[in-house]
Amino acid sequence: MKKKFIIKLRKFLKETSPRICEAVLVSASPRKKGRCIGISKEVSKLLKKSRTIKICDYKIYPCDGCLLCREGKCKFDDDFLKFVQVLKKFKNVVFISPVYFSHLPSQFKKIIDRCELFWESGKRPLRGKNFFLILIGDEKKNFIKNVLPTIKAFCITTGMKYKKSIYIQNK
Q1: pLDDT tens digit string along 25-44?
Q2: Is the Cα dihedral 97, 99, 100, 104 positive or negative?
Q3: Predicted TM-score of the model (pTM)
Q4: How far apart are CA 20 and CA 128, in angstroms?
Q5: Are strands 49-54 and 130-137 parallel, antiparallel or unpaired?
Q6: Which of helix, strand or coil describes residue 138?
Q7: How many whole angstroms separate alpha carbon 100 and alpha carbon 135?
Q8: Which of 25, 34, 30 is nearest to 53 (CA)?
Q9: H-helix or E-strand containing 108?
């Protein structure tokens, strides 16, 4: 891991401490051994307690707009609610995500889209949890402003409190 990354991550965590002493770290990358996992390992070293999970390890179908969620149901029998249950176990939720085409990858987006069930039902399963985002991209441009409206809507829908984001250039 590049020293620049470590310095920036430590600064990010120091600025957010003591809010982050334990967290679930969520890799939103489709790659099982990519940069997001490397960063999650570095972040976990700086926390007292953490668990890293990968969206790609869960069988979660993308929303198809059937509108069954308006009745408080979802037609998919997959790992989505299991994924949400893991997040519920921690006070802090840290998503670590690559940037694809100036935005979030489809793996992350399908989680957000499936939260329509919570929006329609009024349930906020992650109420009171703190949300942090570590975004990684190849460009110098900071893509936080591109994803922030979506991230904030995700937090409102699930009941999480948006706290802080950081963009790390992958070069």
Answers
A1: 999 998 988 888 988 898 88
A2: positive
A3: 0.91
A4: 14
A5: unpaired
A6: coil
A7: 10
A8: 25
A9: helix 106-114
